[in-house]
Specification:
Layout (H helix, E strand, L loop, with lengths): L8 H7 L17 H4 L4 H8 L15 E7 L5 H12 L5 E7 H4 L7 H18 L6 H15 L6 H10 L5 H18 L1 H13 L1 H21 L5 E7 L6 H10 L1 H5 L4 E7 L13 E5 L14 H12 L10 H11 L3 H14 L7 H16 L4 H13 L7 H8 L3 E4 L4 E4 L7 H10 L1
Parallel strand pairs: 1-4, 1-5, 2-3, 3-4
Antiparallel strand pairs: 6-7
Helix pairs in contact: 1-16, 6-9, 7-11, 9-10, 14-15, 15-16, 16-17, 18-20
């Protein structure tokens, strides 16, 4: 039976999960390649890892760390999961997805936490593919755990709790349990979090050597099993880091990330792309464009409207809308940002009377979403947004501009050459006053 969107307001509301990416086989997936103008994005991403998708040539370097930029919530993870289907294969990669927002404390993530999560997911993925490693391949990691963690005076109570809770055992299952304890502690245990990070920092060279050795042994086993040539990690959730955490992770601790001799893609917030000190450390020039509703000269971009309409009507049956006018208005005021459209849809479901979304309901939802932006926008923000809208130019990337990009008050399209303010902001008094002042 083909997929049918929910036709009940409460069911629609229940199923809106705009924090979660779609699985690769989710029937609600919409191909947005033309709508975004991202026809070359997958090809370029593969080329960065020396994989030519046109003829299958693959000459991977020892390591490559790539940042995949984009506004938060525009579908980077969903796209990467579909890219993974092209990147996976016997003559290509085994893709290992690491969702750090799910596994770790997203409000306080460091490189040490991420490395533990990567090791855990690598071992779990190998197990799923029935790849068994000899004791030699695991010996260095097991030795590191024994000498640096289980023997630490500061972690004596922590290791005692591990042993009291369950017999860890050896081999891949034992290491998965140990890494799971680590990642769980990084997420919920304030008592041991910093002590564990200190242990990793103080013995980092030993840990990274053990990790790299495990990775090489795993890749040799994958080749022998005719499953893949190399491992490719997709680190998801790093685009949701905030402020100093973002700079700490991608700038100050970049050398620690680069110590992993592997292939890694990190999702990254768009504003980070304009940090000068990223240059030379990470491959940082690839991004997922927004869905366009117009081109730079404000001509309607029909593929963008069609894609957004599909995304909306896969979440809510067309019968729930009074007419096409309500559907078009939700699309227009999303600015081509899928999550913003779902936020508006959620508000409509909460406000709708008689299980019907009419124009009054949509307008009220737009006002409520706009009020979220009113709370943090300053007078200078409105002036800058109006200037960008009226000049139709890319006028620079100062701190204020980067903050507006991060908070979605300013949306960037195509190759980043043009931007527009979020449509709901243009209805606010501050924006209208800024327009009048400039006029």
């Amino acid at each position: 039976m083909s997929y049918q969107p929910p036709d009940n307001i409460l069911e629609v509301l229940q199923k809106i999960e705009y924090e979660e990416a779609l699985a690769a086989d989710d029937p609600r997936f919409v191909d947005t390649t033309v709508a975004r103008g991202s026809q070359k994005t997958l090809y370029r991403l593969a080329r960065k890892f020396s994989l030519d998708l046109s003829d299958g040539r693959f000459t991977p370097p020892l390591q490559k760390h790539v940042l995949f930029f984009g506004h938060v919530g525009i579908g980077k993870t969903t796209e990467l999961r579909h890219y993974a289907k092209e990147l996976n294969g016997r003559e290509r990669f085994l893709v290992v997805e690491v969702d750090i927002a799910l596994m770790l404390d997203r409000n306080n993530i460091k490189y040490a936490d991420t490395l533990m999560a990567m090791a855990q997911e690598l071992l779990k993925t190998l197990t799923l593919h029935n790849i068994s490693l000899g004791s030699e391949a695991l010996s260095e990691l097991e030795h590191w755990f024994s000498q640096r963690v289980l023997s630490s005076e500061n972690l004596r109570q922590f290791t005692g709790e591990i042993k009291a809770g369950a017999e860890v055992g050896g081999g891949i299952p034992g290491l998965i349990k140990l890494f799971a304890v680590f990642t769980s502690s990084f997420k919920t245990n304030k008592t041991y979090k910093e002590e564990l990070r200190t242990v990793i920092r103080n013995s980092f060279s030993e840990f990274v050597a053990a990790f790299n050795y495990l990775l090489r042994q795993a890749e040799e086993s994958l080749v022998k099993a005719n499953i893949a040539k190399r491992v490719l990690f997709i680190i998801d959730g790093t685009d949701k880091l905030r402020g100093e955490d973002t700079r700490d992770f991608f700038v100050h601790d970049a050398e620690q990330l680069l110590a992993i001799e592997g292939h890694v893609i990190y999702t990254a917030p768009l504003n980070l792309k304009y940090e000068d000190n990223l240059a030379g450390k990470l491959d940082a020039d690839l991004w997922l464009p927004m869905i366009k509703l117009t081109d730079r000269d404000n001509h309607i971009w029909r593929p963008g409207w069609e894609a957004m309409r599909k995304i909306l009507l896969y979440r809510a049956a067309q019968t729930l809308f009074a007419s096409d006018a309500e559907i078009n208005r939700l699309i227009e005021y999303s600015g081509g940002h899928p999550r913003e459209m779902l936020r508006l849809l959620k508000l409509c479901c909460e406000l709708a009377e008689d299980d019907l979304i009419d124009i009054q309901t949509v307008d009220t939802a737009i006002k409520l979403l706009a009020s979220d932006y009113r709370r943090f926008l300053e007078p200078e923000d409105y002036k800058l947004l109006v200037e960008i809208d009226q000049n139709n130019l890319h006028i620079g990337n100062d701190k204020r501009t980067r903050d507006l990009l991060y908070r979605l008050a300013l949306l960037e399209y195509n190759d980043g050459s043009w931007r527009r303010s979020h449509p709901v902001i243009r209805s606010l008094e501050g924006y209208i006053a800024a327009v009048n002042a400039i006029t």
